[in-house]
């Protein structure tokens, strides 16, 4: 984020199961801002599910679409964006998010992320496999691979273990209020 300017958008980053969409909805509601789920936006524009895009265009086709959608979103004021777990892979996405708003990294141990994903009805049919590994092992590998990229982007990091989405949202709102005070 640019600390000399009022925050116009909040990007939520983090692995699958970190609660980006749920916490994001609470933040958007409290601010009276628009909530955008980047994955839903990709699906809407493509007229296909993420799983179908992965099957037909491979991960690289999906990543290209993800970058295009992030670019569009980065020009919309007053919005909260739940990004896909892999949005931090491309350096250009990381730069774009850092330049365009407050970036909040939601973390949790892989075991917790995996448990949450299993209780999410979207998981099995909508989420494509990202590696040849099985569930929890894939989650562990991906979190280890991406940790550095999440850390590079984040203005604020919140451990979501044992916290409700409302608590997480409140922490984000408190941070925004503090940064607004610094600008005054
Ligand atoms: C992905 C996470 C998914 C979605 C796609 C790829 C990833 O988003 O963008 O399946 O690479 O981790 P969620 O984090 O919202 O599940």
Kindly list the characteristics that best describe this protein:
184 residues; alpha/beta; Rossmann fold; 5-stranded parallel β-sheet; binds shikimate-3-phosphate
Please tell me about this protein's structure.
This protein has 184 residues and is α/β, with parallel strands linked by helices. It has a single domain, classed as P-loop containing nucleotide triphosphate hydrolases (Rossmann fold), CATH 3.40.50. Helices cover 58% and strands 12% of the residues. The chain has eight helices and five strands. The chain has a five-stranded parallel sheet, with helices on both faces. The two termini are 17 Å apart. 34% of the residues are buried. The mean pLDDT is 93. The structure holds shikimate-3-phosphate. Shikimate-3-phosphate (S3P) binds next to loops.
CATH architecture: 3-Layer(aba) Sandwich
The CATH superfamily bears the name P-loop containing nucleotide triphosphate hydrolases
Sheet with most strands: 5 strands, parallel
Task: Report strand %.
Answer: 5-15%
- CATH class reads Alpha Beta
N-C termini distance: 17 Å
| Rounded Rg | 16 Å
Number of helices: 8
Q: Per the principal axes of the C-alpha atoms, what is the gross shape?
A: globular
| Chain-averaged pLDDT | 93
Produce a short descriptive summary.
The chain has 184 residues and is of the alpha/beta class.
What is the element layout, followed by pairings?
Elements: E1 9-13, H1 20-31, E2 34-37, H2 38-46, H3 50-73, E3 79-82, H4 91-100, E4 102-107, H5 110-118, H6 123-126, H7 135-153, E5 156-159, H8 165-183
Parallel strand pairs: 1-3, 1-4, 2-3, 4-5
The structure holds shikimate-3-phosphate.
